[in-house]
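User: Before I run my own analysis I want an independent prediction to cross-check against. Here's the chain; please return only the structure tokens and, at the end, one sentence I can use as a sanity check.
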Amino acid sequence: MVVWTHYTEFVPVQTYKLVHIERDRPGQVIITMNYPDDSKVEDLTKTHGLPHKTSLDSETQTWILEERAGQDGLVQTHAEIKASFSGKILSGAVSKILSKAFHERIDSRFKLLETAVLPRTAEAITYDGQVKPIIDGYCVGCHQSGGIAPFALNSYEQVKRYGTAIIDAVASGRMPPSAPHQIAEHPLKYDFSISPDKLETLRAWVKAGSPMGDAAIAGTPLPIQRPSITRVDKTMGMATPYTVKAGSKDEYRCFIMGEPTSDEFYVTGYRVRSSNKALVHHVALFAFDPEYSDIVSEMDAKDSDIGYPCFGAPSTEDNQNLPSRLLGVSTFPSANFTFPQGTGIFIKPGTRIVLQMHYSVHGSEEAVSREDQTQIDLQIEKKVDKPLLTPFFSKIEWITDGEMKIPAGQKKVIHSFSQDPLENTPFIWSKGEMSFEKGIHLYGVYPHQHLLGKGLRFWKEDAKGKKEMLFDNWGNYRFHFQWSFEYEKPIVIAPGEKLGLECLWDNSAGNQPTLHGAPKKPQDVAWGEGTNEEMCVMILTVSES
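Assistant: Structure tokens:
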């Protein structure tokens, strides 16, 4: 293996800084240096007659040193290196200026083996420089102090402690949960899937000993978080606090947010404010049109406590398929959602806004508060350039005729279909007054299955049957981690083009939900809203073309 390390003689104080010291094997020491600019690197190499690449794209030069024969081992060498600094070496990362004494000691103990200039992608990787932006962007939303995840990743010490586990979870696809596979032709905005190059950065950092770096020159945050609303125009909320039932690790419950709306407006974004963020896993916001207001009130009245149980859709099991419109899905603690600029969803007077809460309890009964009272802040407009709808796309025969059979014990079950959306009954049910005769602009998608679901593929198909993949999280779907996804640019579905949907399930004994403390026995499953039933739905965010 080629190991990049650095060795040179005394150079003026302002020239460079030591970044990292480590061992590669007995008899070698690895030293990585950072230079302020490439011209000084070139000057140094010319001065000392050392090999140098003329085309530089890096601030890091590294050389290989080998301990001279007859000298003591590396323990003493490290002690001498440390002694040459005015400060301490912390976690293998240093930003103290080297002294002349350091070079004299190194020169007496080592001989030069090899030298090279690293490309920029291989420069010294540190927590502050490269790793923290990745962890903050992809992990800290859940893994933070007081957050829903079982441990925090807010600090260098925490990330270093779990470094190997983080790499394993990302490489296996378990984290980030339900992350979609990247499709180059249709990139997702705020994409939270960790790309292979970022995974390699994490691997290289752990392999290098997890150096800290310098917080003063921290890396740039990654632009993957959905922006928050910029103002609050309307606030709704739970009338009284709700206490999650004792013994429940995961509870799904719906709450009516205040009285029916009194005027018409467009929702362009929202923010959810929970009084107990550690209890809330994710939220989904729905709108029931005025004609269903009485049914929503009846569902709420049947339960003696505030709200009513709801799994999957925002309705009770005796009101399956009650039409509703999805406004968005967000995870805590960053429960913000904004629609694309210039768009919004129309809300009629008399609409009931319902918030579905996924409460997830970690820890003992005594250690975790189970009370929550959540409020939502809406950002609204009276007019928008492009009114949006959120129709759902699925096969009607799965819903009405029981065609979506998932036999007990089968590990791999697949159902798929394709159809013109304007001929698709579920789409027609929920498209409202929009005609889409000139085509559809697809802004985003929300994939949905239940507990046995393992992934969805979604595509468009031209008249010759050629498929163009639009979304794919095959093998990565997890019911308890559901997300809405927005495309960088709207996708045009031309008149006559079909949409296709394919779903994967695992109904084997090893993939059963827990019931009363034990895995449930596999049973035949078909379409339904209940916990023991399944779905294959793609909810679309669309406008007229």
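Sanity check: The chain has four domains: 17-122, 127-217, 234-388, 392-544.
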